[in-house]
Amino acid sequence: MQIIKAEVTPVVLKLRRPVCMGGLPSINVVTAVFLRIETRDGKNAWGCTVAHPDLTGEKPDDLIRMCQAGADRTLDLHPTNIEYSLSELAPVVGESPAALCVFDLAFHDLLGLAAGMPLHRLLGGYRDRIQTSVTIPLSSLQERVELARQYAGQGFRMLKIKGGLDPVEDVELVRAIRLALPHHVLRLDADGGYSVEQALGVARALKDDLEMLEQPTPAADLDGLRQVTRNSPVPVLADQSLSGPVSALELAARRSVNGLSVKIATCGGLRCARQIDAIARAARIFTLVSCLVEPALLIAAGLSFALSSRNVRYGDLDGHLDLLNDPTLAGFRLEDGWLVATDVPGLGCTVQLD
What we know:
This protein has helices at about 55, 60-75, 80-90, 95-115, 120, 140-155, 165-180, 195-205, 220-230, 245-255, 265, 270-285, 295-310, and strands at about 5-20, 25-40, 45-50, 130, 135, 160, 185-190, 210-215, 235-240, 260-265, 285-290, 310-315, 330, 335, 340, 350. By secondary structure, it is an alpha/beta fold. The strands form four sheets. An eight-stranded parallel sheet has the order 5-6-7-8-9-10-11-12. A three-stranded antiparallel sheet has the order 1-2-3. A three-stranded antiparallel sheet has the order 4-15-14, covered by helices on one side. Strand 14 (about 335) and strand 15 form a beta hairpin.
């Protein structure tokens, strides 16, 4: 199988509403980079990645340049030799996880097309659907309670509440949402905003209300994260502390967390996500598949990974819901808060670019 064309297309995607996270500027637009590879036998596969300068440090212009350099090199590679091809591309794109992700997804999509199988089955086929949470971003308490009610009306039964700026206000907010929606599953994501003492205070105050507490302490403070995990009555997950398989191994070896939150775009694609999940499984800690604000093509990749592994217990794959001009035509379905895969080969998506 020979690649005859590799086209890189950046797209600026607008959001329905700004996304606010603790300590960072509001996200109003996202730069996505799509890759289409065409083979001599007429197959077209798609990859995608995103630039989030304030979250990941990946600047749009730099990411586009690296993706274009990788696309030029791709013409000399055999796309279904994924391990070798990604190893060859890594130095070309400066070891950028976001840039590697676009090629990883396109190669896996093509592998599924060549096999005539949906990717979630090709990777393991443990299930065909998973329940996802939906995110309640930072805003006023009243606005967030109302947004939670709206999402509940749309069928979502799991809510991920953003916090980390003020632990007292976070406790008040979670209790207000719990009062409004007594039967919903609630998760709290502090985005590294707490001290150890604050994190434990929040966990103890909300031990009957929270399913999990995500990234309570700063990303680099692994000792603090471990202290919280050891003493928290609520399961603790690493998010920003996890950057790839090496950090996953350190977190697992130190018993720093109860679970790992994996994002396809930030870890470098499906290959690295599966390595992280294997480490988590060996350490007997669970995996949550999460996302950035990103197109549905990336969500489809996260879903394929989530459905392939028994160790993936949780889904947080809502990053496409507020995008207004996503060119992805998704093959998966969203039904009452559940993401349901289809049997379309590969990632199951097509992309319509102008």
